[in-house]
Each structure stands twice: as structure tokens, then as C-alpha cells.
Sequence to fold (319 residues):
Amino acid sequence: MTKSKHVAAAILALSLTTAAQSQEMTVGFSQIGSESGWRAAETTVTKQEAEKRGVTLKFSDAQQKQENQIKAIRSFIAQDVDAIFMAPVVATGWDSVLKEAKEAEIPVVLLDRTIETSDDSLYLTAVGSDTVHEGKVAGDWLVKDVGDKPCNVVELQGTVGSSPAINRRKGFEDALKGHDNVKITRSQTGDFVRAKGKEVMESFIKAEDGGKNICAVYAHNDDMAVGAIQAIKDAGLKPGTDIKVVSIDGVPDIFKAQIAGESNASVELTPNMAGPAFEALAAFKEKGTVPPKFIQTESKLLLPETAAAEYEAKKDLGY
Ligand code: AHR
Fold:
């Protein structure tokens, strides 16, 4: 055999081994639930990314309960999966179950939400956006938009105790520092759910003179913003004009609202956390490459000018 044929044979053998390895890989995915359009898209994309790579994905929906996630992880460990992906519903309370995964030598990858732990060897890596930065991008936009005018902001928070709810609040507050004309006057959780966002916004409007004392609503996700938009309309006000609307995710429904002039700004959160997660996992399993502890995705500001193009690009992604 000539030298070049040897090289070609070696490359073929290596790629067959790699394909076989990923074909044999089984990954357990503990998903939070389906509270938002963004979450539904993350589930769809994770399944697609697994299929593309020939990975068998065992999917478990925790219906918003940490105890269900803990059960799912224990069940994945008992089934001796090759790795576990987990989107943790809240930030604390994971150490014991993650120690069990570590003892079983099953790497755990966190998707889109982070955890609080004193031992970061309990997970291989976390793929997600910088959620403090997301809140800052939203707050910076509002501060710039209102200029020197007074602006009372009502806040729809995400799930209590979840990393994005904690961090998006913090980032937004950071942006407001030094801008005393812009203040958060009311804040309550809407649990990242559209119907709850509407309900809480209705109560804010009622408490604030039919909405007259509200300048803007900051929602920790687009679904709650869409619920708030409906509440504003039901109160006879114009969302986007009488009350500004700023939120996070970049889902197709918020682009529709932007096109209609009812949402002013959103911040991008890609639903494709699984792509980078599978890449990191493959490099770790096949070459022993240890990934960084945090693999960051982009958080760009999304304004009405680009809403039509964003809507076209995202409308068929499973939201
Ligand atoms: O963790 C990401 C957040 O969870 C998304 O912003 C929200 O829509 C989801 O449910």
C-alpha cells in the first residue's frame, strides 16, 4: 500500500471508530418541563442534536419539580448511561445526587441554568448564557431609551430560586445603578409562564392606577412578556407605547409582538445548548479533553428593526 493509501485507511478507521462511539453513546436528559416556548424549543433541539450524532437520548420531563429531576438522575445512574444532561430547575440542592453520578463515573453537563455548589468537580461543564449579562443588556436598553424621564418599572420574575431569575434581576439592577429616574416599583414571580405573567401584570395594573403609574414592564422571559402584553391591552392601554415591554429569550411570538409595535426589546437566548454540550462531551470521551467549566452562548439585544428576519429564521425551530 502506498503512503497516501495508508493515511486514507487510518483516517477511515478513525472516523468509523468515532461514528461507532457516538452511535453507542446513551445520554440521559433531565428537562425541567415545558413552561415556556423557549423550553419547548430547547427540548426539540436537544432531541435533534442527539439524533444527528446517533446518540440515544433518554428524556425525562420533571414537570417543574426538583424531586422529579433527582429521581430521573438516579434512574439514569441505575441504567448506567454514558452521560447526563440536566437543566436544573433551581440553583441549590444538587450536591448529593451529583456525588452519586460522580461515584458512578458518569459525567454531568448542565444546560442553560447553573447551580450553586462548593464542589464544581460534580459536573463536567455548564453550557448557557451569562444570565447576569442578559439582565444588564435589558436594563441598559431601558435606561438609554427613557433618557432623563422618570420611569417606574414592574418586574415579572422567573421561577423563585432558579439561576436565571436570580441573575436577571441582578443584571437589570446593575444597569439601573446611577440612573435614579428608573426604578423597579413592583416585582413578583410569574414562574416563566405566559398565563401567570398575564395574571401578575393584571394585579400590577390594578395596583398602579389602571397602569398609569407604570412606564415599563421587565419580564424575565418572553412568554411572561406576551402574557403582560395581553393584560395591558385588556386594560385599554397600548403595550410598547403606554407601557414599554422588555424581556429575554427571542422567541417567535415576541418577534410577532415587535412587528405589531407591542414589544420594544428582547435579549437572545439560543435554544441550542445541546450542540456545544455534545461537542464537549465527545471531545472528553474520545480524547480526554477537559472542557472549560462554563461554555457561554451569545446574548445579543433584539430590536423591532430585525424582528421580521428573526421571526423567519426561528419560526420552524419547535418553539
Ligand atoms: O433557563 C432559561 C429560562 O427558562 C428561559 O428564559 C425561560 O423561557 C425558561 O423557561
